[in-house]
Write a structure and sequence with these properties.
The structure is a homodimer of 209-residue chains. With 209 residues, chain A is mostly helical. In chain A, 62% of the residues lie in helices and 0% in strands. Chain A starts with 31 loop residues before the first helix and ends with a helix. The structure holds a DNA duplex (30 and 30 nucleotides).
Chain lengths: 209, 209
DNA sequence: AGCGTAAGTAAGCAACGGATTACAAGCTAG
DNA sequence: CTAGCTTGTAATCCGTTGCTTACTTACGCT
């Protein structure tokens, strides 16, 4: 056969994973749970980086240092992996932050290019805006969660709507910054952005009528 | 061969196009310019609906009622079509609106589900957030254009940054509304949304310090 | 040790999708 | 009319991609 495109050598074929996660970079041998986790981690990174469509299961598996067939054994489908990444990241963030701090926290987590311990769910959300399947449903749910929390901050009659607008702003900032890389927002000082946004958002939420 | 998936019959194989555009729904015979235009129109619709990745050149050609090879003759590549759609739609909108009205106009054009004479560029922008190539470049440029116009509205020292934030809000609203379909924003009254957003945006742009 | 099951792997399948090619048909200049 | 360009078409190439399958290898148990 002629098609010998590079996919066999697995690049870094050092036994069992790139030492990618789980602190101890020791060899992981035949550990189903760890393999699953590695796949989830890798998927989170790639979905956040490239979005759902442009991430292939082969890429995920390679980054996780795992055979791609295992992805299907443990998750069933690419969509299922996406759902789990989103659900995990998104819900955890909301649940673990009190509403008053949620906006600032989410904003900061988006403004800092921390890479490592960054919450991938928002970036993944943003970069996967094309998709339609079950995929869209889970994205809606995460948004719902955020908005619910934000709505508690307003006494206005249409608190829900205002919360949606704040959420929209949050996502929009991520979009312009990370996805489009537009300056000056992309490299603006986080504190300054937080200050401006929080000010306007607060006035939006508090103002009645 | 077994692969006889339905792609040959072209569905509506009525001679030359679906009467899709160009007012006069008469048969268009061997008109290169019109064919090009039809492709551009169809592409705009589909990119806005599904984003770059999930739109195939075959779909574009089918909707335009044109052979798909022509797309490559007239544009060279799928990416080039996207660029032209974005450039056309985006730049026209900005150029034809004075800055004071730009925010409201863009907002309304996003809030109304007019379908027909709607500007596709923003929706296409939003739904194509995964892509990376030349694709990303043109999206950046359109954003640049909007932000430049918006920045003229502020006297603050960091007018550019504030303009970016307003742009981000605009896009975020489109994202939450059209792409995620999140309620109550998705079916909220346009006037109400405009009122809330304009108020907050104005205060953000005007406030100094 | 040996056996059964879970974990891991390589190879491949079928479908898709972007791009190309070889060809047919129409318009126009000479 | 016809030569030669342009416009349109069908068919196909070829790499990619989600997913499956048939198989091997390691681990835990008795």
């Amino acid at each position: 056969m002629v098609t010998d495109h590079v996919n066999a050598p697995t690049e870094c074929s050092c036994v069992y994973g790139v030492g990618f996660m789980t602190s101890e970079r020791q060899v992981r041998k035949r550990d189903a749970a760890a393999t699953r986790e590695a796949l989830l981690q890798a998927a989170g990174t790639l979905f956040a980086e490239r979005g759902f469509d442009r991430t292939t299961v082969r890429d995920i598996a390679k980054l996780a240092g795992v055979n791609q067939a295992l992805l299907f054994r443990y998750f069933g489908s690419k969509e299922a992996v996406f759902e789990e990444v989103m659900a995990k990241g998104g819900f955890e963030q909301v649940a673990s932050t009190e509403p008053e701090r949620l906006l600032e926290t989410a904003l900061r987590s988006m403004l800092t290019r921390d890479d490592r311990n960054r919450d991938h769910s928002i970036a993944a959300y943003l970069r996967s805006s094309g998709s339609t399947g079950t995929n869209g449903e889970i994205r809606r749910q995460v948004g719902e969660e955020y908005a619910r929390a934000l709505a508690t901050l307003s006494d206005a009659e249409d608190a829900d709507l205002r919360a949606d607008l704040v959420l929209a702003w949050l996502l929009g900032i991520g979009l312009v910054r990370d996805v489009s890389g537009k300056e000056p927002l992309a490299s603006a000082d986080a504190d300054r952005v937080v200050e401006l946004v929080l000010g306007a958002a607060r006035s939006l939420l508090e103002r009645t009528g």
